[in-house]
Design goal:
Largest sheet: 6 strands, parallel
Number of domains: 2
Structural class: alpha/beta
CATH superfamily of the largest domain: LarA, N-terminal domain
Helix content: 25-40%
CATH architecture of the largest domain: 3-Layer(aba) Sandwich
Distance between the termini: 27 Å
Length: about 425
């Protein structure tokens, strides 16, 4: 039997005896919004627990639209109706990419992601989490996260968030408060917030009671974010619903609409093949590693995880990531990441790849591009450049009759 696995802008094909396959975990298929422009305009006029956007812009002079970078689906179709309303009232509009700690986009990437009209009629900004001079300090959360955020949100009369809703292993769900934390936050604030990934309750699909999400919500609570426009994202990045309105309650409504798409029944196997979903979700290893999350929960003890992530942009991570992978054992990584003084996003990346080894005594094999395979040489992750070699190695370790589970769009799945 042949199975297709998303990889970059194409697919990898695996030949495996059907009786060995315990299942394929993937999101449910959904019906796409037939006309995104019309759906957005209707939503802006009839938002959830908010005045309509045309009423909010009246009498204002400027607006800031916070949106996602190209590690997420383009929001261009959603931005254009917002621009029509803002420009119709004479507002000066700026658009800022909430990059968090991702790298900044090139001009070509910006044009592809945001479109000509946005690029040529708006002031387009990119967040730099290391530029302390562009941050304002507004206190500290109860968990000790400094509320240090890009000053652009204070320099406009109206702040609008625009993005997609999907499950997030960081904050439970994307969107809403996540545009501000980590989207427009200072790097040290991001590290402090993300430290809570090491604590109980930090799980995909948990919006409240998740310490990362709760801290981000407190971070954003008193910051300017007046209105949101969000697309509920389907498994193939299609928009399946548009929700606008109150930045907290409309966000909660959108998450509730999204959850049935991605909640699946847990299965276990000796060999788990997991893909984040191809481009752009395996753009680099920072994104691609997210597919390891459901694999940790589904691989059997002494099994093998094969993570399929092309990573054409490389590791995408800070130096700590590769240093820990090369110079610490998996057990040392899992121990040291709990030390707040040592924690950062690079340490977290090393930790998430170490967890299957420590928790399940599982082998972690990455199928990736040659450049990343070379960088990972000598680490506790076995990086190979083709699926056939990874498959042979997995069968040598787990046995030629070992059970197999395939996980597609793994970065978004919520396991029951």
């Amino acid at each position: 039997m042949q199975y297709s696995i998303s990889y970059g802008k194409g697919d990898l094909i695996l030949d495996v005896a059907e009786e060995r396959v315990v299942g394929v975990l993937a999101p449910r298929e959904v019906q796409q919004v037939p006309d995104v422009d019309a759906a957005v305009r209707a939503s802006l006029d009839r938002p959830f627990e908010s005045d309509p956007l045309p009423a909010l812009v009246r009498g204002k002079k400027s607006a800031l639209i916070i949106t996602v970078d190209n590690t997420r689906p383009s929001t261009e179709e959603m931005l254009l109706p917002i621009l029509d309303i803002c420009e119709g009232e004479g507002l000066q509009v700026s658009v800022i990419n909430a990059t968090g700690r991702h790298r900044q986009m090139t001009e070509e990437e910006l044009y592809t992601h945001l479109g000509n009209r946005v690029m040529e009629t708006c002031r387009v900004l990119q967040h730099d989490p290391f530029d302390t001079g562009k941050m304002l300090y507004k206190g500290t959360t109860r968990r000790g996260t400094a509320i240090r955020v890009n000053r652009a949100v204070f320099e406009h009369d109206l702040v609008i968030g625009c993005g997609i809703i999907e499950p997030s292993y960081l904050c439970g769900w994307s969107g809403g408060r996540k545009l501000l934390m980590p989207g427009l936050a200072h790097h040290a604030s991001i590290d402090n917030n993300h430290y809570y990934l090491t604590q109980p309750g930090a799980r995909i699909g948990w919006l409240h009671g998740n310490p990362v999400s709760d801290d981000a919500l407190e971070f954003a609570r008193d910051l300017p974010l007046h209105f949101i426009v969000y697309a509920v994202c389907g498994p193939n990045d299609e928009f399946t619903a548009i929700v606008s309105g109150h930045p907290v309650r409309a966000h909660e409504r959108a998450c509730a609409l999204c959850e049935p798409i991605y909640r699946v029944e847990r299965k276990e196997a000796d060999i788990v093949l997991s893909s984040p979903g191809g481009w752009p979700y395996d753009f680099d290893l920072v994104q691609g590693k997210k597919a390891i999350v459901p694999a940790i929960e589904t691989v059997k003890r002494n099994g093998v995880v094969i993570l399929c992530a092309q990573c054409p942009d490389g590791l995408g991570a800070e130096k700590t990531f590769i240093d820990w992978l090369k110079n610490k054992t998996p057990f040392k990584v899992v121990h040291d990441v709990l030390d707040r003084e040592q924690f950062n996003l690079g340490a977290h990346g090393a930790n998430i790849l170490a967890r299957p080894i420590v928790e399940k005594n599982a082998k972690v094999v990455l199928v990736t591009c040659p450049e990343v395979a070379r960088e990972l040489k000598g680490t506790y992750v076995t990086a190979l450049t083709n699926l056939e070699d990874a498959w042979r190695l997995a069968n040598l370790i787990a046995g030629s009759d070992a059970s197999v589970l395939l996980i597609e769009k793994a970065r978004r799945l919520i396991l029951d």
